[in-house]
Amino acid sequence: MSEQERNSGGSQLLRMGLELGPLVVFFLMNARAQMLFGTDPKQNIYYATGAFMVAIALSLGVSYAKFRKIPTMPLVTGVFVLVFGTLTLVLHDDVFIKLKPTLVNSLFAAALLGAAAFGKPLMKQLFDGALELTDEGWMVLTRRWGFFFVVLAVLNEVIWRNFSTDFWVSFKLFGIMPLTIVFAMAQVGVLTRYAVKTDEADPKAAD
To answer: Per-residue pLDDT tens for 137-153?
Structure first.
């Protein structure tokens, strides 16, 4: 394995850690706040929300320091966490932090499906050169991810409205993340089918 490949693999792992880390902090603080602070279990979500906000801010800061840029989706998600987390803490109402995933996923779905409706494969801009696909391939990915975000928004509404806060927090980490990883892996066929094919030999060199 070349040095460049090792660096690329390390960067991908770091990016994954920066995205997953805040969710792990959110889950652990919600599970341990009562033990740490001796508070009413109903207050756990507020400690978890505060820790989540700090973790998100640190994640975005590390991402910028390391890569000199912050990907669009984590940035939008981070802004929503900070805004709705603040509303949750100031108004002492956990509905705001529970609504955040619904609104974020709905926004992503609207952006992707709206762009696709106008013939704009938005996923191409979001991947920013990380993959080389045909325009048709980018359009397929854009539509699929758009519909997937619709499913995530609906799932969030069903879970937070019908189950306990602890179950909702656990589902964010152990439900949504695995679903997203499985869905992303299921798109490998699209990446293979619509990959840009380069000529095996340069015609000019043959001349």
So the answer is: 999 999 999 999 999 99
| Residue 63 and residue 70 in contact, taking contact as beta carbons nearer than 8 Å | yes
CB 82 within 8 A of CB 56: yes
User: For residue 184, what are its two tokens?
Assistant: 């992303």
Domain extents in the chain: 3-197
Q: Using CA atoms, how far apart are residues 82 and 146, in angstroms rounded to an integer?
A: 24
3-class DSSP assignment, residue 26: helix
Question: What is the identity of the amino acid at 171?
Answer: F
What's the rounded Cα separation, in Å, for the pair 86 and 32?
21
Sign of torsion over alpha carbons 23, 28, 30, 36:
negative
Let me know: does 104 contact 73? Beta carbons within 8 Å. no
Looking at the chain, list the stretches that DSSP marks H as alpha helix, in order from N- to C-terminal side.
3-37, 44-67, 72-91, 95-117, 122-127, 135-162, 165-171, 177-186, 188-193, 203-206
- Are 53 and 88 in contact by the 8 Å Cβ rule? The answer is no
Q: How much is the pLDDT for 5? A: 42
Q: What pLDDT score was predicted for residue 199? A: 52
153, 109 contact by CB (below 8 A): yes
